[in-house]
Amino acid sequence: MSAPAWWQSGVIYQIYPRSFQDTNGDGVGDLLGIEQRLDYLVDLGVDAIWISPIYPSPMVDFGYDVADYTGVHPMFGTLADFDRLLAAAHARGLKLLLDFVPNHSSDQHPWFLESRSSRTSAKRDWYIWRDPAPDGGPPNNWISDFGGSAWDYDPATGQYYYHAMLREQPDLNWRNPELKAAMLDAMRFWFDRGVDGFRVDILWHMIKAAAFPDNPANPDWAEGMADKDRVLQLHSTDQPEVFELAAEMRALADSYEKDGQPRVLVGEIYLPVERLMAYYGQAGEGVHLPFNFQLVEAAWNARAIHRMVADYERALPPGGWPNWVLGNHDRPRIATRVGAAQARVAAMLLLTMRGTPTLYYGDELGLTDVAIPPELVQDPRELREPGLGFGRDPVRTPMPWGDSAQAGFTTGTPWLPLNDDWRTRNVAVEAADPASMLALHRALLALRRAHPALAIGTVRLIAAEGDVLAYERFHQGEKIVVALNLGGQEQAVTLPAGRLLLSTLPSGDYAPGRLAPDQGIVLLVEAG
Known about the structure:
15% strand
């Protein structure tokens, strides 16, 4: 049996670069700030960092509107700064993944400016243009993920262009071979510089049904739901041809494997499990890790999560490696969703379940969503559909490093407000507290490194009742049992005898046969 790849045994840490560390006082994080904090990440115990977009951009959608796929926004630094960061990360044994945004560009990208200049432009077909409907309106009923029609009319050329996101983010036409070649060249640019992989943004959106039929109405839509959910995205996403594109990107990534160090592709895909699995490819030629967002959206219920894990493991194709996520830059933080005590249990679940975990910056401190006053809202999602809870600013606030001014994040005014409790919930305070959330994460990550059963072992769910979720991890004679109380009442459990490796309780206590409220434990039952 071959040794596991680094992306199978490792832990990925997502950095939202605007909010990690500012070094020039403009209130926005930068690449030098990330470099400055690499030793913190080494001490934490993660193996790779994924950095959200750093490309030149008008920042209408904070970097997901790319104006140059082979550059760095001056706000974040320079290409030389990036090269220095990459070298510094590699010197510390850390891998580095970039965010690749292939579905759409900025409307300020030179490609789009040329495309919209004329119907006869050489790059006209690099984007998706369609004639108006017979009544002069949009070509079909597709709705943008930010609300409203996904089509914007261009009076100069008399056609509509398609944008799955904001009007400032026109979709690229991946059916055009020249566009596809240009985008793959952009990936090569970064692979040639030494990046270890990409997180591929909204992969399932990249190809649309060629005939552009109307999407069917959603019979379950009701007031208060997102405008985009008025229709089912049957024809605008998840088309069969997308798997060919994923395979081409995978082949490109595989061509850069060197000295046994593979490059990795992580696909952002919000789909039901049975459809998600197709993104591994029929024979493993798809993306390495189609993001599994089930825990981000799941009810916090032990029986439901037990079934979820079982169904997910059962659905994995041969050779498909699992992965788990608790939060990201688009969804509420786990400590907001389940509370501070259960967030500790959730951390144990994330870091002991079979598969590659992705940890969102600040979750290791127990950060919660930050209330953003209306006058400070930045996110276009909230500005377009205010008050419905879709805003993403609350989960993108600056990382609190200490109790000095602005929590050590900046010497200026931070681009978003800090968490209200930053004076007590910050890296410096928690690093000095052995009972802190940060200390728990460090201990869990150390356990993963020390025990192959947790990093790469198989998993077997243990039958349990009530609020208890329990499972065993095995590898070459080593057997570890994890038991989690997902509720606020004491639970009786029947577990094999073993040595307590870790408890989520600050006291570290564990009474055999009982799980205290909000307690998770890791037991070493058999040493390898």
